[in-house]
Design brief:
Shape: extended
Strand content: under 5%
Helix content: over 70%
Largest sheet: none
Distance between the termini: 55 Å
Number of strands: 0
Radius of gyration: 21 Å
Order of helices and strands: HHHH
């Protein structure tokens, strides 16, 4: 009997955790904002790859979702 109860309990617990969205990029994407210009300066000197990826993400989000 125990082996039948465990899967039922697991399904019940997992159903409460599921978050439903339409799966649309614009529903889940939002732009990344920098606190101030010092952050941009730091990234441009120390992590240009991350800075480039953030800019690409923001431009993509604005182009597809209108900002």
């Amino acid at each position: 009997m125990t082996w039948k109860v465990i899967p039922i309990l697991c399904v019940g617990l997992l159903n409460g955790c599921a978050q439903t969205t339409s799966g649309n990029y614009c529903d889940i994407a939002s732009p990344f904002y920098f606190e101030n210009q010092d952050v941009v300066k730091y990234l441009s000197q120390n992590d240009t790859i991350l800075l480039r990826e953030i800019v690409i993400h923001n431009e993509t989000q604005e182009r597809l979702c209108g900002g």
